[in-house]
Amino acid sequence: QVQLQQWGAGLLKPSETLSLTCAVAGGSFSGFYWTWIRQPPGKGLVLIGEINHSGRTNYNPTFMSRVTMSIDTSKNLLSLELSSVTAADAGVYYCARGLVVVADFYFDSWGQGTLVTVSS
Amino acid sequence: SSDLTQDPAVSVALGQTVRITCQGDSLRSYYASWYQQKPGQAPVVVMYGRNKRPSGIPDRFSTFRSGYTASLTITGAQAEDEADYYCSSRASSGNHWVFGGGTKVTVL
To answer: A82, B56, B63, B100: which has the highest count of C-beta atoms within 10 A?
Structure first.
């Protein structure tokens, strides 16, 4: 059973860079999509982007200019950086594993979430 | 406008049946996956593909797709089913994945 454990700075000032890391235990990076998803307070889920085991990324156009995702397969780590944060970037950030079964895609494992607050 | 549209809230009496819908252009080509989220917790997948249920999910959950609409049905809703439910599928305008706005299910 794969487990995702995430961490990172929870309090940022406007214009700073959000940086989160997600450790993957009990599973391989290969064959999956690794994603970051955020949830503003009281609102719904938004996919920030995805990265595969070879490092190929696919970002939500909304975040394209500010986001960088990376993986370190030797350490089983997934990372997210989101630059120039504003109050609108506050919320809970999740790492999640995307799984393709034949033609079906779903997010089968999630991290515990990291609450990010942006305040001056 | 959102790629996937869900009703904000629905209520159901204990033991009765409730259907949650998700509308979007991409649903004609892709099946939706469905996630249950309880307060303070990460989402959990409850259904995916053509009526497929991950291990451990009760069989009172089922899905159906017709045209541009996907639906999640809870037959015999239990108190523990009270949660927010999100659908997810491909974005109609690109090659990334999107979520619906979520439906809050209240079990009366």
So the answer is: B100
Cβ neighbour number for residue A58 with a 10 Å cutoff: 16
Are residues B43 and A45, on separate chains, in Cβ contact within 8 Å?
Answer: yes
Calpha distance A4→B76 (Å, rounded): 32
Residues of A in contact with B99 (CB under 8 A): 37, 44-47
User: What would the two tokens of residue A11 be?
Assistant: 């309090």
Assigned token pair, A100: 């393709």
Residue A39: closest C-alpha in chain B: B42
Identify residue A45 by its one-letter amino acid code. L
Contact (Cβ atoms closer than 8 angstroms) between residue A115 and residue A42: no
CA distances to A10, A92, A99 from A33, rounded to whole Å, are 25, 20, 6
Compute CA distances A36 → A33, A51, B9, whole Å. 10, 9, 26
User: Tens of pLDDT along chain A (120 residues)?
Assistant: 899 999 999 999 999 999 999 999 998 888 899 999 999 999 999 999 999 989 999 999 999 999 999 999 999 999 999 999 999 999 999 999 999 888 788 999 999 999 999 999
Residue of B96, B98, B103, B104 for testing the chain A interface, max A β-carbons within 10 Å:
B96
Q: Which structure tokens are listed for B72?
A: 């999640």
CB neighbour class for B8 (10 Å; exposed up to 12, middle 13-18, buried from 19):
exposed
Chain A environment of B45 (Cβ under 8 Å): 106-108
A103: chain B residues, CB-CB within 8 Å: 31, 49
